[in-house]
Design goal:
single chain; two-stranded parallel ribbon; 3 helices; elongated
């Protein structure tokens, strides 16, 4: 996908990535079972790795991965 974007827009190279995958499951991290922890974490880690490998040939200025501290400090739930 990145190479096709580069071919279509050669004068506008991709200079950065923002990765903000999320799975909504309101719970504190210490109360998650391992299976649910993996379910919540998998899209974040898999997505970051896929984006990393897809952009290895790009000359990126930044690669930002967003997450949330609500799993540690809690939130108001849904």
């Amino acid at each position: 996908a990145f190479s096709k974007i580069g071919e279509k827009f050669p004068s506008c190279p991709i200079k950065g990535v923002f990765h903000s995958a999320a799975v909504l499951h309101d719970a504190l991290i210490e109360s998650l079972y391992e299976s649910l922890f993996r379910k919540v974490l998998k899209p974040k880690v898999s997505g970051a790795l896929n984006l990393h490998f897809a952009t290895l040939q790009e000359k990126l200025d930044f690669f930002v991965c967003y997450s949330s501290v609500s799993s540690v400090i809690g939130n108001a739930l849904q």
